[in-house]
Design a protein that fits this description.
The complex is a heterodimer.
Chain A: E1 3-13, E2 19-30, E3 35-39, H1 46-54, E4 61-66, E5 69-70, H2 76-86, E6 87-90, H3 102-113, H4 118-127, H5 143-155, E7 161-165, H6 173-190, E8 193-198, H7 201-204, E9 209-212, H8 213-216
Parallel strand pairs in A: 3-8, 3-9, 6-7, 7-8
Antiparallel strand pairs in A: 1-2, 1-4, 4-5
Helix pairs in contact in A: 2-3, 3-4, 3-5, 4-5, 5-6
Chain B: H1 3-13, H2 15-48, E1 55-59, H3 63-72, E2 81-82, H4 83-90, E3 95-102, E4 106-107, E5 114-117, E6 134-136, E7 144-147, H5 149-155, E8 162-163, E9 165-166, E10 179-185, E11 196-199, H6 200-205, H7 213-224, H8 228-248, E12 266-267, E13 269-274, H9 282-297, E14 301-304, H10 306-360, H11 365-406, H12 419-442, H13 446-451
Parallel strand pairs in B: 5-11, 7-10
Antiparallel strand pairs in B: 1-13, 1-14, 2-12, 3-5, 3-13, 4-9, 6-10, 7-11, 8-10
Helix pairs in contact in B: 1-11, 2-10, 2-11, 3-10, 7-8, 10-11, 10-12, 11-12
Classes of the chains: A alpha/beta, B alpha+beta.
Chain lengths: 223, 452
């Protein structure tokens, strides 16, 4: 199993003191190499779920097991290290650092995992079609190219799981399918499990396994 | 790629703001370097120049003026001492060297101070362990002169050059007598570099340098507290002969040797080196103290220790100015530091997302804290290094101007070891500056910053 969630609960305290439940997932699993798309409406807890799986956010209770490691038992530094080494993330807004070139953006993720491999970073960028744009900084790249850099960066540390948060939401229709194919193909090539969240049914239709977030996430106030 | 590269990239990302903040540090450091160098130069100047002598004996009056005129040649002499008094000092058994100097005139070209003295002047160390070195010869003949290195440079004089002098206080009166340069002193870093030394015998023989006999006798009588008749008795037949010559209207054909009666000779001050007894250097100090006290109780002369006087001046006046300048430049650096702090701290709001991205990619809290701290240190050190070069460039450029205006000799390549302390200080300052923004980075809520 690449990912297992058991009784994961998460809620936020609102400014007025009320508790706002966001996550209540009894069970969810993803096999190694499997590609799953989660469909849900805005505000449905999709991003919080991804943050919980990547260890960015802690959960109130339950188990978040990634590649056999229960992240809820790791201290923050351990979760950071784990995220750097085994989880790749593609954001909706790419989140590239503008001061760094395409190559350096890919190397940046490797640096935090303690294994900057310039050759592999270059290979990844060539794979996503940016072999001639290595030294270009994000503002010098098109939107589609920026998202390709983001995909290459997510794969930089040879992760076991890739989390993609609406990766096609910021690109035009022409680029949407290209990006989607690229993510799916590169994950397959590297044997990486993929969990993508989207609210687009067009995107969801391209996946064999489509999960409606509302079907397994039933937030409720808990103690 | 490492943390330093990430920090450099971040600085380059905000190039204008980073450059301006770095520049403010650079200006502060440049100013501090310039102050430190000048501070060191002044300190050495005032502590070394007179340190070869134990005592300066001159007429009663301001001890500071006596030192400034005799050693630094930046103040007019107080009055003069009779030659007879000098000979009495010279013959004391507790004195190793008693060197008379006569001041007041300047060179016609360049306006450098003339020092009439005896060859022995160059045999005494001008500073502890430092002896005069000369190209050519020291003073020998009556019309010989030795010039300082700066005089040679400025006036283009060398061995064999001839010059005339302007009488003290009368700019339009140029003495007819000419002196010939016999030697050029190697640079000493003291006021000797911009002085012209002429043989005292020649100095006395210059028309107008010997006092009229009657006036000289009265002046000497007044000095020693005796009657003019007593003074006449001291000089006996020599005086009668001189009075006859004066009555005949002796034609002072210039630049030739003729006798000047001792009663007509005066010196501005006497530079004294005491004898060392039993190889104990302290005996020089005690000897000079005893002589100083003795003079204090006596007639119209005083003895001053040049180092003591200059130290007092440094502590009371110059020292405070130096200290104020140091505080001021320290303050400028601190203000620059605050500028860096404000710059980095303000940028934190814009950089929360950047930090969150790094954290999402696996950077630990300590890592982003270190990146911010490294930025602060790089800005401070970069600014500091630039400031160091700028400061020395400033000293290099200003040295000739300062010398021309004040006579203060500054080595254009002067380096003060204390400057090395600037860098650890800057690192500490940068760490303090970077701490709070670093803490902001440390505490960044990743999920929140990414969702915004």
């Amino acid at each position: 199993m690449s990912l297992q969630l058991h009784n994961v609960k998460k809620s936020y305290r609102e400014p007025d003191g009320n508790i706002l439940p966001v996550l209540n997932v009894e069970s969810f699993a993803l096999d190694q190499g499997e590609q799953v798309v989660l469909v849900g409406e805005s505000g449905g807890g999709k991003t919080t779920l991804l943050n919980a799986i990547s260890g960015i956010t802690t959960v109130d209770s339950g188990e978040v097991i990634v590649d056999g490691v229960d992240l809820t038992r790791l201290p923050e530094a351990g979760r950071d290290r784990f995220r750097a080494e085994r989880i790749g993330i593609v954001f909706q807004t790419f989140n590239l650092l503008p001061a760094f070139s395409a190559l350096e953006n890919v190397l940046l993720g490797m640096t935090f995992a303690g294994r900057a491999d310039r050759d592999f970073a270059r290979t990844l960028l060539e794979r996503v079609g940016l072999g001639k744009r290595l030294s270009h900084r994000p503002p010098q790249l098109s939107v589609g190219e920026q998202q390709r850099v983001a995909v290459a960066r997510a794969l930089a540390n040879r992760p076991r799981l890739m989390l993609a948060d609406e990766p096609t939401a910021s690109v035009d229709l022409a680029n949407q399918n290209t990006i989607l194919s690229l993510i799916r193909e590169t994950c397959s090539e590297h044997g990486v499990s993929l969990l993508m969240v989207t609210h687009s049914h067009d995107v969801a239709d391209q996946f064999d396994r489509v999960e409606q977030l509302a079907n397994f996430n039933k937030p409720e106030v808990h103690a | 790629m490492n943390l330093l590269t990430i920090a450099i990239k971040s600085i380059r990302q905000r190039l204008l703001a980073s450059s301006l903040t770095g520049l403010s540090v650079a200006l502060g450091v440049a100013l501090m370097v310039a102050v430190l160098v000048i501070n060191g130069v002044i300190g050495r100047m005032f502590s070394q120049s007179g340190s070869g002598y134990d005592l300066i004996i001159g007429p009663k009056g301001s001890d500071l003026q006596l030192v400034l005129s005799s050693i630094y040649r930046v103040s007019p002499p107080i009055e003069n001492l009779p030659w007879r008094f000098y000979t009495q000092i010279r013959e004391r058994r507790d004195i190793e060297h008693a060197i008379p100097i006569a001041l007041g005139d300047t060179t016609e070209e360049g306006g450098f101070p003339i020092v009439g003295t005896i060859p022995q002047y160059f045999g005494v160390e001008y500073a502890h362990g430092r002896k005069f070195l000369v190209k050519g010869d020291f003073l020998q003949g009556t019309w010989d002169a030795v010039i300082g290195a700066e005089v040679a440079r400025k006036n283009g004089w060398d061995v064999g050059s001839k010059f005339r002098m302007i009488h003290g206080g009368q700019d339009d009166h140029v003495h007819e007598e000419q002196f010939t340069v016999r030697g050029v002193l190697k640079r000493t870093g003291t006021p000797n570099d911009r002085s012209v030394f002429v043989h005292l015998d020649g100095f006395f023989q210059i028309d107008g340098h010997g006092k009229p006999l009657e006036e000289a006798i009265n002046r000497e009588a007044d000095f020693f507290g005796v009657s003019p008749e007593t003074v006449r008795e001291w000089y006996g037949d020599d005086l009668a002969h001189a009075e006859e010559e004066e009555a005949d209207g002796h034609d002072h054909d210039h630049a030739h040797d003729h006798e000047v009666l001792d009663a007509q000779k005066e010196v501005t001050s006497i530079l004294v080196v005491m004898k060392t007894r039993n190889n104990n250097p302290l005996t020089r100090t005690t000897g000079s103290l005893m002589l100083k006290n003795e003079l204090k109780e006596g007639f119209q002369a005083q003895g001053v220790n040049p180092i003591e006087v200059m130290r007092r001046l440094m502590d009371n006046l110059v020292g405070n100015v130096r200290l104020a300048l140091l505080y001021l430049t320290g303050l400028i650096i601190a203000v620059s530091g605050i500028g860096i702090f404000v710059s980095i701290y303000n940028s934190m709001a814009d950089r929360k997302r950047e930090i969150a991205i790094m954290r999402a990619l696996g950077a630990r809290r300590q890592t982003v804290f270190s990146v911010i701290l490294a930025e602060s240190i790089l800005l401070c050190l970069g600014g500091g290094l630039f400031g160091l070069l700028l400061g020395h460039g400033l000293v290099f450029a200003a040295a000739p101007l300062v010398e021309a205006r004040s006579g203060l000799l500054i080595d254009p390549f002067a380096f003060e070891p204390i400057e090395l302390v600037l860098f650890p200080v800057l690192i500490v300052l940068a760490s303090l500056i970077g701490f709070l923004p670093g803490l902001t980075a440390y505490r960044t809520d990743v999920a929140d910053a990414l969702s915004n």
